[in-house]
Amino acid sequence: MSTGTSASDDKNRAIAAAILPLVGGAENIDSVAHCMTRLRLGLRDRSLVQDEALKALPSVLGVVEDDTYQIVLGPGTVARVTPEFEALIAEAPHPAHTAEQLADRGAALRAARKAKNATPFKLLLRRIANIFVPLIPALIGCGIIAGLNGLLINLGWLPGVTPALAAIASGFMALIAVFVGYNTAKEFGGTPILGGAVASIIVFAGVAKIEVFGQTLSPGQGGVLGALGAAVLAVYVEKWCRRWVPEALDVLVTPTLTVLISGLVTVFGLMYAAGEVSQAIGDFANWLLANAGAGAGFVLGGLFLPLVMLGLHQALIPIHTTLIEQQGYTVLLPILAMAGAGQVGAAMAVYLRLPRNGSIRRTIKSALPAGFLGVGEPLIYGVSLPLGRPFVTACVGGAFGGGFVGLFNMLGDKVGSTAIGPSGWALFPLLDGNKPLGETVAIYAGGLLVGYLTGFVATYFFGFSKELLAEFNVDTEKEPTRTAAPATGPEPEPVAAKV
User: Fold this and answer.
1) Given 35, 142, 241, 395, which residue is catalytic?
2) Sorting pLDDT into bands at 50, 70 and 90, what band is 497?
3) Exposure string for 29-56, b = 16+ CB within 10 A, e = fewer
4) Which long-range contacts (CB under 8 A, 24 or more apart) does 80-83 make?
5) What domains can you pick out in the chain, each with its CATH number?
6) How far apart are CA 85 and CA 32, in angstroms?
7) Against a cut of 0.85, is the pTM above it?
8) Mean pLDDT in the chain?
9) Known active-site residue 241
10) pLDDT of amino acid 476
11) DSSP label of 47
């Protein structure tokens, strides 16, 4: 081709071109972003979206409506489609005489929708996620380096390199409070660098000279929870100063008072209080798994998929981070990762139970590799959730897998992850625990196997009623190729779920 574009580029641009008119065209897009599996769009006018036609596109695995309109495309695909989508928007004409009116109307609709659907608790969880999610790439990178370094030390290899690797792996965690403070101030509407400045007090070595409530402070006391609280306080102090300090003095007085007042409260109150809370979280997690590991793992593994669907899993992010800070790994994540194993097992059973439905079987074949790597959204929105029962049996698989890992925790074999984000097979490089690495890996692999098998068996034998089989075990191969038009054939459509 003269343009030098590849077939893959053409395919991704075709997907973007098919999606764009169904979300109201370029003039209806206010913002574009993507995460691991979803294209996230800020829309000016929600009523312009053609939901049914959009969900009927072969490349679309589902949609999720939240503060942004989220189109599930799957891992890899979304990262390649998003630039093409942005390019199409940039190339499209934007009528100047209607843009402002459309933006105003869209802003009013978005505000009304958010006011109707958003609850204070879910808004708070979303803010927490916005603070911690940007830190995940660094947590993953440093966690893998830490695991590699531990392996080299155990093998006695490259003794001259392992101290450098230890420094590289530990530097971010030593200063994570600063990044949390920065992101917190940014999220709550303050000056980010002031939030980082106040949070940096927590990790400053000089706090070891300060005594509070009869105890000497230690650097890092309070951790990410203290940093979050300190930064939120700094935002409120800064906003108060902006209201009362004269403009001529603002540039000098506001940052000084913000850091001074918030810093004093942090040193003489927040560090101690947050330290006690952080310690309590770690102690409770250890106690729970040591005394009720199997039961706790069963409940956590079984309920994690519904928590994800409701968006409540975001509340666990600071808990994971606190455990990683304290112990070097979070013992909760390997248990929660079993939910994905149950989902994979359920999908494989669906594949066998619907031998005539070529459409669903193709979706499963394309989504299973991502599912094994811990990305479950394509299988959730494209397979189990639309079918109903298989979503429940997938949770059963997650419960048994979680109970298996929890049982070994109760027996003294802690299985943890040095970072948050990955699950499935992608979690293997991040595993750590209190026993040799081989033993930890074996327990986690055993949990995955239990999750796969239980999810498969539960779905194969209990995931389908006679009516469900009659409805979905039909031939879809003669269905016409779909583009932007709504589907008319019997293929099930992924449902939209609010998270």
Assistant:
1) 35
2) very low
3) bbeeebebbbbbbebbbbebbebebbbb
4) 80/8, 80/12, 81/12, 81/15, 81/16, 81/19, 81/39, 82/32, 82/33, 82/34, 82/39
5) 7-118 (3.30.1360.60), 131-289 (no CATH), 328-472 (no CATH)
6) 8
7) no
8) 86
9) no
10) 66
11) G
